[in-house]
Amino acid sequence: MTAVEKKQRYADVAKEIAAVIDGEDNLIARMATVSNILHNAFEHYFWTGFYLVDPNKPDELVIGPYQGSLGCLRIAFGKGVCGTAAATRQTQIVDDVHAFAGHIACDARAQSEIVTPVITAAGDLIAVLDVDSDQKAQFDETDREGLERIIKACFS
Ligand code: SME
Questions:
Q1: Which of 72, 111, 141, 153 has its CA 20 to 30 A from that of 133?
Q2: What percentage of the chain's residues is helix, strand, coil (to nearest 5)?
Q3: Where in the chain are the domains?
Q4: Which CATH superfamily is domain 3-155 in?
Protein backbone atom coordinates (compact mmCIF):
# COMPACT_ATOMS: atom_id res chain seq x y z
CA MET A 1 0.00 0.00 0.00
CA THR A 2 1.47 3.39 -0.99
CA ALA A 3 1.49 6.34 1.42
CA VAL A 4 -1.23 8.01 -0.64
CA GLU A 5 -3.42 4.89 -0.52
CA LYS A 6 -2.86 4.54 3.21
CA LYS A 7 -3.83 8.17 3.79
CA GLN A 8 -7.00 7.69 1.75
CA ARG A 9 -7.84 4.50 3.64
CA TYR A 10 -7.54 6.34 6.97
CA ALA A 11 -9.85 9.08 5.66
CA ASP A 12 -12.42 6.47 4.52
CA VAL A 13 -12.19 4.59 7.81
CA ALA A 14 -12.64 7.83 9.79
CA LYS A 15 -15.89 8.50 7.91
CA GLU A 16 -17.15 4.96 8.43
CA ILE A 17 -16.41 5.07 12.16
CA ALA A 18 -18.10 8.47 12.53
CA ALA A 19 -21.22 7.15 10.77
CA VAL A 20 -21.46 4.03 12.97
CA ILE A 21 -20.91 5.75 16.34
CA ASP A 22 -23.06 8.78 15.52
CA GLY A 23 -25.45 9.30 18.47
CA GLU A 24 -23.79 6.59 20.62
CA ASP A 25 -22.26 8.05 23.77
CA ASN A 26 -21.21 4.81 25.49
CA LEU A 27 -17.43 4.70 25.60
CA ILE A 28 -17.09 0.92 25.29
CA ALA A 29 -19.43 0.84 22.28
CA ARG A 30 -17.36 3.57 20.62
CA MET A 31 -14.05 1.84 21.38
CA ALA A 32 -15.35 -1.54 20.18
CA THR A 33 -16.42 0.07 16.89
CA VAL A 34 -13.08 1.85 16.42
CA SER A 35 -11.04 -1.30 17.08
CA ASN A 36 -13.21 -3.46 14.83
CA ILE A 37 -13.31 -1.11 11.83
CA LEU A 38 -9.60 -0.26 12.01
CA HIS A 39 -8.57 -3.90 12.44
CA ASN A 40 -10.49 -5.00 9.38
CA ALA A 41 -9.38 -2.07 7.20
CA PHE A 42 -5.60 -2.60 7.22
CA GLU A 43 -3.58 -5.69 6.37
CA HIS A 44 -0.64 -4.58 8.51
CA TYR A 45 -2.79 -4.63 11.67
CA PHE A 46 -2.29 -7.82 13.66
CA TRP A 47 -3.68 -6.74 17.07
CA THR A 48 -5.84 -3.64 17.56
CA GLY A 49 -7.34 -2.45 20.81
CA PHE A 50 -7.68 -0.19 23.78
CA TYR A 51 -6.17 -0.27 27.24
CA LEU A 52 -8.23 1.88 29.62
CA VAL A 53 -6.98 3.84 32.62
CA ASP A 54 -8.37 1.85 35.57
CA PRO A 55 -10.48 4.26 37.69
CA ASN A 56 -9.66 2.16 40.76
CA LYS A 57 -5.91 2.11 40.04
CA PRO A 58 -5.15 5.31 38.13
CA ASP A 59 -1.52 4.34 37.43
CA GLU A 60 -2.55 1.13 35.71
CA LEU A 61 -4.06 0.31 32.31
CA VAL A 62 -6.61 -2.49 32.01
CA ILE A 63 -7.67 -4.23 28.81
CA GLY A 64 -10.61 -2.80 26.88
CA PRO A 65 -12.26 -3.67 23.56
CA TYR A 66 -9.85 -5.31 21.10
CA GLN A 67 -9.44 -7.49 18.03
CA GLY A 68 -6.80 -10.18 17.64
CA SER A 69 -5.14 -12.76 19.85
CA LEU A 70 -5.40 -12.74 23.65
CA GLY A 71 -4.06 -9.49 25.12
CA CYS A 72 -2.39 -8.91 28.50
CA LEU A 73 -4.95 -7.80 31.08
CA ARG A 74 -3.00 -5.06 32.86
CA ILE A 75 -0.05 -2.77 32.09
CA ALA A 76 1.44 -0.36 34.63
CA PHE A 77 2.04 3.26 33.59
CA GLY A 78 5.60 3.59 32.33
CA LYS A 79 5.88 -0.13 31.40
CA GLY A 80 6.11 -1.33 27.82
CA VAL A 81 5.05 0.71 24.83
CA CYS A 82 1.48 1.20 26.07
CA GLY A 83 2.60 2.28 29.53
CA THR A 84 5.09 4.71 27.97
CA ALA A 85 2.38 6.25 25.77
CA ALA A 86 0.17 6.62 28.85
CA ALA A 87 2.92 8.13 31.02
CA THR A 88 4.15 10.57 28.34
CA ARG A 89 0.77 11.21 26.65
CA GLN A 90 2.65 10.97 23.33
CA THR A 91 2.14 8.56 20.44
CA GLN A 92 4.86 5.89 20.42
CA ILE A 93 6.03 4.26 17.18
CA VAL A 94 8.30 1.24 17.65
CA ASP A 95 9.86 -0.39 14.56
CA ASP A 96 11.20 -3.40 16.44
CA VAL A 97 9.52 -4.24 19.72
CA HIS A 98 12.35 -6.61 20.64
CA ALA A 99 14.70 -3.61 20.73
CA PHE A 100 12.35 -1.61 23.03
CA ALA A 101 13.47 -1.92 26.65
CA GLY A 102 10.58 -3.21 28.75
CA HIS A 103 8.37 -4.27 25.86
CA ILE A 104 5.56 -6.50 27.09
CA ALA A 105 5.16 -9.52 24.83
CA CYS A 106 1.49 -10.50 25.00
CA ASP A 107 1.90 -12.37 21.71
CA ALA A 108 5.38 -13.42 20.59
CA ARG A 109 4.43 -12.73 16.96
CA ALA A 110 4.22 -8.94 17.52
CA GLN A 111 7.15 -7.18 15.80
CA SER A 112 6.29 -3.47 15.56
CA GLU A 113 3.65 -1.21 17.04
CA ILE A 114 2.06 2.19 17.41
CA VAL A 115 0.33 3.38 20.57
CA THR A 116 -1.73 6.59 20.70
CA PRO A 117 -3.06 8.16 23.92
CA VAL A 118 -6.79 8.85 24.19
CA ILE A 119 -7.29 12.26 25.84
CA THR A 120 -10.70 13.85 26.42
CA ALA A 121 -11.60 17.46 25.62
CA ALA A 122 -11.15 18.16 29.35
CA GLY A 123 -7.53 16.97 29.09
CA ASP A 124 -7.98 13.66 30.91
CA LEU A 125 -6.12 10.58 29.71
CA ILE A 126 -8.72 7.79 29.60
CA ALA A 127 -7.03 5.09 27.51
CA VAL A 128 -4.45 4.26 24.87
CA LEU A 129 -5.05 2.69 21.46
CA ASP A 130 -2.48 -0.04 20.74
CA VAL A 131 -1.93 -1.42 17.24
CA ASP A 132 0.59 -4.22 16.70
CA SER A 133 1.92 -5.77 13.49
CA ASP A 134 3.52 -9.17 13.01
CA GLN A 135 6.08 -7.53 10.68
CA LYS A 136 8.83 -5.08 11.61
CA ALA A 137 8.60 -1.31 10.91
CA GLN A 138 4.99 -1.23 9.73
CA PHE A 139 3.92 2.11 11.26
CA ASP A 140 4.90 5.59 10.15
CA GLU A 141 3.76 9.21 10.23
CA THR A 142 0.73 8.41 8.05
CA ASP A 143 -0.47 5.92 10.67
CA ARG A 144 0.22 8.43 13.44
CA GLU A 145 -1.77 11.18 11.69
CA GLY A 146 -4.60 8.82 10.76
CA LEU A 147 -4.94 7.33 14.24
CA GLU A 148 -4.54 10.61 16.14
CA ARG A 149 -7.25 12.18 13.95
CA ILE A 150 -9.67 9.29 14.52
CA ILE A 151 -9.02 9.23 18.28
CA LYS A 152 -9.58 12.97 18.53
CA ALA A 153 -12.80 12.82 16.52
CA CYS A 154 -14.19 9.94 18.60
CA PHE A 155 -13.11 10.74 22.15
CA SER A 156 -12.40 14.49 22.54
N1 SME B 1 2.93 -4.53 23.16
C2 SME B 1 2.37 -3.86 24.27
C3 SME B 1 1.63 -4.79 25.15
C4 SME B 1 0.23 -4.97 24.75
S5 SME B 1 0.00 -6.13 23.64
O6 SME B 1 0.98 -6.34 22.66
C7 SME B 1 -1.50 -6.45 23.20
C8 SME B 1 3.35 -3.05 25.06
O9 SME B 1 4.56 -3.34 25.17
O10 SME B 1 2.90 -2.09 25.61
A1: 153
A2: 40, 25, 35
A3: 3-155
A4: GAF domain (3.30.450.40)
